[in-house]
Amino acid sequence: MEESIRGCQALLEQQHGLRVSLDEPLSVHTSFGVGGPADLFIEPHTPSALAMAIRVLRANAVPYVVIGKGTNLLAADAGVRGAVVSLHPGLSRVEVKGSRVIAGAGATIGKFCHVAADAGLSGAEFTAGIPGTIGGGLNMNAGANGGSMGDLAMGVTVLDSDGFAQVLTGKDLDWGYRESRVSRESLCVVEATFAMAVSSPERVHQAIYEALQNRCQKQPLGSRSAGSIFKRPRGDYAGRLIEEAGAKGLRVGGAEISRKHANFIVNTGSATAADVIRLIRMVQHTVYDRFGVWLEPEVRIIGELPEELREENRSVCAFGRTGDHNR
Ligand SMILES: Cc1cc2nc3c(=O)[nH]c(=O)nc-3n(C[C@H](O)[C@H](O)[C@H](O)COP(=O)(O)OP(=O)(O)OC[C@H]3O[C@@H](n4cnc5c(N)ncnc54)[C@H](O)[C@@H]3O)c2cc1C
């Protein structure tokens, strides 16, 4: 694969003018701040450059994973073999057209939310404080306070695994809890159009302010994390179960269950991906022994875990198949 990687690098850099690096540390591209190097790291700045990159990778049989701001990712300590295609900060245009907002996959959800608010368009206030991108948000069907991004998306331009574009309607994407056709079929989001309701900038900004205040009170925003580490179990909250099982403050190496919000694992400074995985496993067992509920991780793992952790964590990885978007 090394030869294919160098071939792709040369082609993308020299012939197509893309920004490409070798052995890029993923710890600087994830909010957790952990993760080893990606063999090839590509940052396309236009939809056509993105499509080109995917076609070149496919033609050279180099597996790849698309990322946004890395705020829901746990990158393996050994890194990612193949390519990581990063859409942030490229593809970050956000435009208002009447009561619609059109946003590039690499735009932050925060930018989308504020541009909508400035135009007096309501509907996205629940996203305030979700730190990822439009692409990552649609892949995850990110949400809060009863709303989720899929509810707002009326049209999504995606690339299939061969780099060919199609425009899907919101309905086509069959949204589920923290998943959709985007994640199930490993589609790459390029751009999305959101349908908003007409309001006033003051009202929308006020609602955003309140949502942000609420987050600041409840979440450990000053620490490195990937947000909620587990999905919400049916009829309950992961944070409540973890707290009542006495796991708040539990620690493995540099990874700790936040003392502020029990469904957050924070990197206290020196955490490795292995620490995080071991802590996830420990919490799953603790909660299961106490309540009979097996918590399912929300965080996505990219790259290969060591054999020992793969065996130990079959159920940890079952949710998303380690490297699940590697094609
Ligand atoms: C402090 C904090 C608070 C958070 N609060 C919330 C919350 O309230 N609600 C919530 O749902 N989440 C929350 N999150 C998690 C995270 O921000 C969201 O899941 C976000 O949508 C991830 O976006 P991202 O760009 O960072 O995606 P990444 O983490 O980069 O990727 C996540 C997944 O999306 C895929 N992906 C990324 N870009 C694309 C693309 N263009 N096309 C297709 N697939 C893509 C990746 O392959 C990966 O599988 C929080 C995280 C943090 C750190």
Biggest sheet, strands in spatial order?
A: 6-7-13-11-12
Give Rg in angstroms: 20 Å
Q: Work out the number of β strands.
A: 18
Helix/strand structural class = alpha+beta
Averaged pLDDT, please?
93
Number of helices: 11
| CATH architecture annotation name of the largest domain | 2-Layer Sandwich
Order of secondary-structure elements:
HEEHEEEEEHEHEEHEEHEEHHEEEHEHH
What does this structure look like?
There is one protein chain. The chain has a five-stranded antiparallel beta sheet. The chain has a four-stranded mixed beta sheet with strand order 1-2-5-3, covered by helices on one side. A three-stranded antiparallel beta sheet has the order 15-16-17. It has 327 residues and is an alpha+beta fold. The protein has eleven helices and 18 strands. The protein has helices at residues 2-15, 47-59, 109-118, 134-140, 149-152, 181-184, 201-218, 238-244, 273-291, 307-312, 314-318; strands at 19-25, 37-43, 64-67, 73-75, 80-86, 94-97, 100-104, 121-122, 143-144, 147-148, 153-159, 165-169, 188-195, 197-198, 251-252, 255-257, 265-267, 300-302. It is 33% helix and 23% strand. The longest helix has 19 residues, at 273-291. The structure holds flavin-adenine dinucleotide (FAD). The site of flavin-adenine dinucleotide has 34 residues, from strand 3, helix 4, strand 9 and strand 13.
Describe this structure in a few short sentences.
This protein is α+β, with helices and mostly antiparallel strands and 327 residues long. The protein has helices spanning 2-15, 47-59, 109-118, 134-140, 149-152, 181-184, 201-218, 238-244, 273-291, 307-312, 314-318; strands at residues 19-25, 37-43, 64-67, 73-75, 80-86, 94-97, 100-104, 121-122, 143-144, 147-148, 153-159, 165-169, 188-195, 197-198, 251-252, 255-257, 265-267, 300-302.
